[in-house]
Amino acid sequence: MSSEKFEDIEDDFRLSLDSLRKLVEDKIPKLSGEQRRSAARDAERQAEDCQHLLGDMDGELQHAPPSYRTQMGNKYRSYKRDFTRLRQSLKQLTSAAPGGAGGPAYSRPNEVNHLEHEQRSQLLQGTNALERASQSVARSNQISAETDQIGVEILGELDGQREQLLNARDRVIETDQEMSRSRKLIQGLARRVLTNKLIMIIIILLELAILGGVCYWKFH
User: Fold this and answer.
1) For a disulfide at 3, which of 68, 121, 198, 205, Cβ 3.0-4.6 Å?
2) CATH label, 2-157, candidates 1.20.840.10, 1.20.1090.10, 1.20.58.400, 3.40.50.720
3) Which of 44, 12, 39 is nearest to 26 (CA)?
4) Do the beta carbons of residue 86 and residue 47 sit within 8 Å?
């Protein structure tokens, strides 16, 4: 979330700004000669750090949620004012030699300045690459966790469906058994009906034979 990253950058900026303030307001004014020049170079490096972090905060501010943007914007402008004031103070300190004499307080060779700038750029690039890699790993872990959760849910659904299929199979078996018993019962009833019909036919035939015998005996 942009507000969380803004807070992380804000913490780093505060540390760099405090270091710059101590150099500009406390340390450099009390030094002279090579010590003053060395402290001034340290202050320049801190100022570059602050400048870079302000740029990062401005980038996060552009993508911040609307509910946080006003508060974050007020902080950003306040930090920028403090940094601008310290940067101007640093320029004033380095524009004159200690003790009030005119001329530059120090002179850094262009090659050293260029080398330090490249090293710092490489360090910042490495930091950004590491941060992007960390974010990528975090996203991968989140996707993996979501995939595991989906897999667990699918297994749960499959287990429930398996239970339903087993219950349906048991009901089919029970129904088949009931139908078998019903068929046997119907077959038994059919045999009884057939037996009763045969018995009735035999009885009728016997009665006809008796009736014929009686008639024959009576008329002869």
Assistant:
1) 68
2) 1.20.58.400
3) 39
4) yes
The tokens for 174 are: 């029970």
Task: Give the DSSP letter of residue 25.
Answer: I
How does 160-185 read in b/e, with b if 16+ C-beta sit within 10 Å? eeeeeeeeeeeeeeeeeeeeeeeeee
In a structure prediction context, what are the per-residue pLDDT tens digits for the chain, which is 220 residues long? 456 788 889 899 999 999 999 999 999 998 888 999 999 999 999 999 999 999 998 888 888 888 888 888 899 999 999 999 999 999 998 875 444 434 444 444 444 455 566 677 677 777 777 877 777 787 778 887 888 888 888 988 888 888 888 888 888 898 888 888 888 888 888 888 889 889 999 999 998 889 888 888 888 6
Task: Report which of 38, 29, 158, 11 is spatially closest to residue 93, judged by C-alpha positions.
Answer: 29
Q: Which two tokens stand for residue 212?
A: 């014929």
pTM: 0.44
The helix or strand, by DSSP H or E, that contains position 150, with its residue range, turns out to be helix 110-219
| Token pair for 141 | 């872990």
